[in-house]
Amino acid sequence: MLKATSAHQTKTNSGLPIGILLLLALAAGAMFSLALAPYYLYPIAIISPMVLYALLTVEHNGRRAFWLGQFYGFGTWAVGAFWLYTSIHEYGGIPNYLALIMIGAMAFIMGLFHGVMSWVFVRFLGRQPLAFAGLWVLQEWLKTWLLTGFPWLFVGYAFTEVTWLNGLAPITGVFGLSFLAVLFGAATIELFRHRGGYMAIAGLLAIATSIISYVAPAWTKPTGDKLQVSLVQGNIPQDLKWLAEYRLESLNIYAKLTQSEWGRDVVIWPEAAIPIFQDEIAPLLAEISNHAHASGSSWITGIPYREEGRLYNGVMSFDDKVDVYRKQNLVPFGEYIPFSGLLNILPNLPGLPESFSKGDANQAPLSIKNKAAGVAICYEVAYPDTTRQNAKNSDFLLTVSNDAWFGTSAGPLQHLQMVQMRSLENGRWFVRATNNGVTAIINEKGRVVSSLPQFVPAVLRGEVLGFVGSTPYAILGHYPILVVSVLLILLSGVVRLTANHSSSREKHYTANGVRD
User: Fold this and answer.
1) Residue 59 appears among annotated catalytic residues
2) Among 115, 228, 296, 464, which is most exposed with the fewest C-beta within 10 angstroms?
3) What is the pTM of this model?
């Protein structure tokens, strides 16, 4: 093939100033959170990545591509996780300006995932939707473990309640939905460029997903057993919760709300409903559990737990025996101080607060009324694989939380949406007891069966069904979609490398004649 095109001419782009492109990327990222709770505008989960794809496919400079992704990621996190401002400023006592700086720093750091992804896409891969969707899944997965992880704001969560698509979740988990949405958006851009093959692939996958969702295979089956549960929402103000002088009042609030619930199968108090270590109030725990047992109830409560010199954020269950679940995924700087051992040796640095310890990864479900309850405490329900592991051999799932840190922001509603996705992925009912909302009962299809309004002291009564069996996701986890994503990335890289090598060998005209 003969070429008369100069190397400079092949370096085309959109023609717009880089400042305009960066603002477009920032706006595309900022709009993404509208796809999630409490707005539920799920088409934006397709449009937002689509804009970034359109910007990157006409970009030839890796450095500029990085900054396009970085601005996109910054917009995503600065807006989508702005609920952190409430806990940092209002409850953490950090001045307004410093809280905003901290939010900006967090958004910049988390934006690096999209920045690096964009750099890799432009620098090493073919400009096509399959590789872009694969890279997107890979960067979401990295957020579940790198530097302990911050697994929030995934594209797939936007489709949690989209019943004609969410049937994919029990097969691939949330990452499969992310892959499909990002692929569909990128393929739409290629359709405008008269490259319809990618849309054919995306369309076939969407049709297959819709058929699966409509058929709704019964991956798991009800056992026929039910538990009557009472979820107690105390609505304890966060600024009072841990004050020593308010502890007795907190306990009185939960005792009064629970008074009418003894006799139900299970009474559940939320995360740290008792803000005192269990070894400090052993007589009170024994008194409550004895009262529960005498009335025919099992009692579960969130409570800080101390054992052999280690501190845990725990859940204690009082049934025929006392059992404990210890939280595995801890919140950095909230429940532990990263690298605290190194920091303690620095001169003139005051002693750091004692951190919680991490619970074992292979904890057995809690036994409640001869039923097995897989447990997740607050933030760790955002980790798909942790919940998947905890769901093994369980009849139903249980999470306790305290989202009072985030006030009236979108954070608690995004949190609930993730619990719904975990129900879908594992084919299990989820009961969610919280301090101030959203307290809810969720079925195996991820639908909220019943819930309490936020910010009121109340009790949610309901029934929970036990289930047996495993979804494909529960068995295989996210590994199939990760393998597919990595293969697509590698294949795109090989094609790009081969194309570059071939083009370098093509004959083309020069002023001095024809040369290789």
Assistant:
1) no
2) 296
3) 0.92
